[in-house]
Amino acid sequence: MRSRYGYETGAYDNFPSFSAKNTKILGRIDWNLSKNHKVTAKFSQLTSNNDNQLNATSTPNGALTGLQSRFGQNGMSYANSNYGFEDIVRNVTFELNSRFGSKISNQLLATMTNISSIRTSPSAIFPFIDIRNAMGIGTTTNISAGYEPFSLNNEVINDVYSFTDNFTYYAGKHTLTAGINYEYQEIGNMFMPGSQSYYAYNSLQDFVENKAPIVYSTTYSLVPGQSAVYASQVKVGQVGLYLQDEWVVNPQFKITAGVRFDKFGFPETPIENKAISAVNLYDANGKLTKYNNTVLPSTKIYFSPRLGFRYDVDGDKKTVVRGGTGIFTGRIPFVWLTNITQNSAMYQFGATVTDATALERFKFNPDPNFHLNRGDALLPTTPGGAVPTNLVYCLTPVSASHNCGVPTLPSIRIWAKAGC
């Protein structure tokens, strides 16, 4: 491998010790700009690295079945075919608290959270190879080498950016708060098994003599200009406007009333699979209809009024009656939408070639993209017409909640949930 292709496999025994380590970074700054303005900035990051052993028997796209373990007395693999995980959680917060006289205050809060899980490898990018019958005594002996078949272009991300501004006005018995919140979220799952290309051979001699493999497999992007894609991905922005009045009727009785408006939208829509848009399909009621994978859930405005009270019966805070009613829009499970892109057949394609005649065109090449770049008909670059699944048209969990209780007594709670 080294002399012919310039590839370093790593050791075949006495592997370097696997490690598991994590690094934490924390920082905070509190800065009094003046007696009326205070800034707080915080940063935290956790990085975790864990080494793992090469998968024992799995092959990309189910290319080869019946493969014996790549480890043990009948299997040999190399150190650079192992892999690792790098998990990163990063958070940045900026907060500015200000007072303008005795009646006005303002809070500005901006946050950024980045969460990622990435597969790593000590190997240079190189095809993965399984060789059966390595010792010439049957298919129970294996040699395996190359870049671990499931680690290249394998990562998960969840990035959230938010901005909140709360303006508060103190007017005697009333405390009025008006605010705006904007949140942008990006969720992505990239998984391209065998994107470094995969070859399987029936003997060591077949590989050395560069004969045709018994299986060839790869996964590649269908999106022009992108060699690696998040087949499962969604980007969404959500804006909220709210107003609240906290009214202290008297020292024992307080009423809080508020209203909130929420609306979310999608800065990007999935790539349309026109082959599917043209097909008539049956809906849940048995009627013919058309589906379009670019149609995302409704982005109407959600209206959420709330009303609550607090009554200190004797004025000594020992017996307090609390209650409230309102409509609440919960956290929206945007991750559901990732299946719309994943199942649209528009982002990536996993190809496996097993026909003996066709495999004569897929002899080994150290360039993972060699066969794709030569334009073989068995590696189509035009998206197919797979039937979409998990189309989501209703997304937002809305609930009505009513409760009343005394801390020293059993409380009463009535709760109802509605759809979009």
TrEMBL record:
Q: Which domain of life is it from?
A: Bacteria
Query: Where is the major localization of this protein?
Result: membrane
How does the protein associate with the membrane? Multi-pass membrane protein
- The identity of this protein, by name, is TonB-dependent transporter Oar-like beta-barrel domain-containing protein
* Gene Ontology molecular-function annotations: siderophore uptake transmembrane transporter activity
- Name the Pfam families for this protein: OMP_b-brl_4
> Where is each TonB-dependent transporter Oar-like beta-barrel domain found?
12-356
Tell me which species this is from: Phnomibacter ginsenosidimutans
Keywords noted in UniProt: Cell outer membrane, Membrane, Transmembrane, Transmembrane beta strand, Transport
